[in-house]
Amino acid sequence: MYIQNIKIDDFRNNSCTILNVTGTFNTFYGENASGKTSLLEAINYLSTGKSLNGASNESLIRKNAAAFNIVAEINLGEKNQAFVGIRRSMDGSLEIKLDGERMRSINAIAELLPTIFIGPDCHKLLTDGPKERRRFLDWGLYYTFPQFYPQWRQYQKLLSQRNAALKDNVSRETLSSWSVGLAQAGEQLHLMRLAYLNRFLPILRNTLNRLLPDIKIEEKYQKGWDTENSLLESLTRNTTKELQVGHTLYGPHRSDLALTVDNLSITEFLSQGQQKLISYAMKLAQGEDVKITKKSAPIYLIDDMPSELDKNNQFLIAQALIALNSQVFITGIHKEDVEKLVDKIKDSKMFHVKHGEITMEEGAAVCETCV
Ligand SMILES: Nc1ncnc2c1ncn2[C@@H]1O[C@H](COP(=O)(O)OP(=O)(O)O)[C@@H](O)[C@H]1O
Ligand SMILES: [Mg+2]
Q1: CATH architecture for residues 122-290
Q2: 95 or 53, which is more confident
Q3: Residue 35 alpha carbon, nearest atom of ligand 1
């Protein structure tokens, strides 16, 4: 699966761009604030219906425009194609289309067009709290377990209801009925996460060995409650504490995938460069798992890679992406940097980004920027 063409209208500083991209590596170079991240963000938005860093939908619409519109033609292999589109207006309306038909949610597009974004602050996956790592794991589950998303939503709904009950200081009897439902949904979610980790962790170990062969990294999944007890027991035993704080302290919403080196925290022991490499390894392993499960690799959106990693590691990552057979969109500031990355990659394409306009190098007529 790969994007063949993409048309972006009024997204951030991009007024109107039509890009004919390649199924292998697409590189984009340009000065700061030229619109490189905006392009990756547009592709990510088409796949997820969400901004990358929690920005409001309105802030993504180009200044003074009424709506943004992103459409793409996707090659699904064996001569199959799909046309997908998303339009978000200033009045708050959202239109999602697949092959001309309106969809009720983004799921149908996400299913066809899984993307993995790796940004300049990717090391935050390790340095920020467990929330980022839970989100990361849940993305992997979302793409590969069809039952995961409905189960996750059900759990979130029950969790907010139980939290409201705790805030309202309801009686222990009332609370215990909320606990039973939450514990059931939470144990189910936990089982799915375990099944995912069974597949994902061996791939991650392999990838870490390739990228950081000299460092022995251990991973440990903490499920979010006492290992000795069921979730229901943990909730029941700690009711007093939970009533005091006013929210649920145990469950898969408190889980973490903790990584350590010699039992020391990664953030204390490793350099920022090494932390970035581990984050890349995690994202590459996630993509490999998607590829094994869905028989098609996700699209990688990699922002500012050359300024983040040294040449040797850039090379290792490019090799891993080639092995995955993924379509890749990589940005960098200098032409030489991105040029080196795709030096020997067949059919790669290079684009120049300037003031929100994107043009293909070598002046081929397949890329147009309209005014
Ligand atoms: N809604 C918007 N309308 C117009 N310009 C925007 C909007 N949102 C962001 N921008 C501008 O787009 C420019 C490009 O941003 P970005 O894509 O992050 O640049 P780069 O990644 O190339 O450094 C920035 O100058 C930013 O202020
Ligand atoms: Mg940027």
Answers
A1: Up-down Bundle (1.20)
A2: 95
A3: 17
